[in-house]
């Protein structure tokens, strides 16, 4: 499914300092890619904009793979990753990476599996430097609400990040998630 996001005003985003090695255009948003050495270290959600070719072979390959996923959710990533985070965050990110395509888990379910709290799991999800590759969009509230994505909660902010989460879930699980008009 490649339906663009419902129109919403993109937030005023000040990306982390430093240039992106590539930018991937997506339906209603863009992805800024950061690579260090031979590893992908960051994927950042940006307002909609044009793609920008990768400045390194790894950035070009990462951009190619992300574009392939955006066309077909069944695409399997094969990239060298180097996410920076605490040992706890790495445990959460590994658990998130194990959520199969077409499925979701709640913050509480992950917390129980990791003997932690849902709030701590949510914090680690929000700190995920490699969204889409580490599919934190597959983590939802116990109630089934999307609630929380890039630290944006339903009813707070302008909905930019939650619209991305909604698009990603509709892209992967169209029988359960639809885009809002």
Automatic annotation (TrEMBL):
GO terms for molecular function: methylated-DNA-[protein]-cysteine S-methyltransferase activity. This is Methylated-DNA--[protein]-cysteine S-methyltransferase. Residues 87-172 form the Methylated-DNA-[protein]-cysteine S-methyltransferase DNA binding domain. Pfam families: DNA_binding_1. PANTHER family: METHYLATED-DNA--PROTEIN-CYSTEINE METHYLTRANSFERASE (PTHR10815:SF13). GO terms for biological process: DNA repair. It comes from the Bacteria.
